[in-house]
Fold Alpha/beta hydrolase family protein.
Amino acid sequence: MSWDILVNIFFILCSIILSLATLTECFYWYEYKNSTSSVFNNNKVAWWKLIWRVIETFVSWIVVYLMYPFVRLLAKPLVDKNGKKPPLILVHGLFHNASTWFFYKLWFKKAGYTRVHLYSYPVHGKELWGLTKYLEKAVSEVESLYPGEKPILIGMSLGGLMIRGWMSETDPRVENRENGTTKTNHDRIRAVITLGTPHSGSKLAAFGIEKTSRSLSPSGPFFKELVAKESITKSEWIPKIALYSLADNLVLPTDNLMPPSEWNKDTLPQVTHVAMMLCKRTFNKMLGHLNKLPDNSNSFENNNK
């Protein structure tokens, strides 16, 4: 294949990505202008900011997808049997792989987190409930590396929904029932943090071209089943924190970024959806919450915002 053909393909792909970035910002603007939600209180968006956000989205997608083929190199875990901080499991979002977390892995290491595990899973053509088995494998591997220690799960976008789904499922290691209730995976982790997770789905799922993206529809069966399973889960309290950006252009309406009522929530710097994975300010905000987590989550009481 000649160099000219490669250049032409690159420019065609860039044109497609730029068009999609522009389209998502147009959808965001429409939702913003027609929203009556209190989420946007004191958050005025000037139209010219959308131009910057289109550029931000475009650059973010280019960087993330350029890293995609190098996942084996970029997503190597940080393993430290003598680490002082709890192990972390990072779960990526839709149409990404573990390479998306590359910069976070570097920043975590610099912050003293020397046990960071990044996992890829297939997201094409899968039902959301079918993805939880991959997270089960990831958690089991970390549990075997650090016996007796509970990891902290951090999920980006779809990764956060995977975590919620997995937490609501029965712990496969426990056969017996206690007091008529089944022990769930919820009790196997120290805490959970989500970034830009569509906790109630996204309207953009209507444009999904395959099963996984379409299953993010707010009216889809996954969310009804998830709420039903979570409502009957009786487990010890652990910190659950949802972080979101009011500039998120892929989770619409913005209200759908809000987690269940028992979760804590906080806003991130106003960056677009994928840009969260490249933004040091976003990482620092999450790190602040991470560093405030108690050493033994189960010994502390909930302090919802």
User: Anything to note?
Assistant: Strands lie at 88-91, 116-119, 152-156, 177-178, 181-182, 191-195, 240-244, 264-267. The chain is about 40% helix and 10% strand.
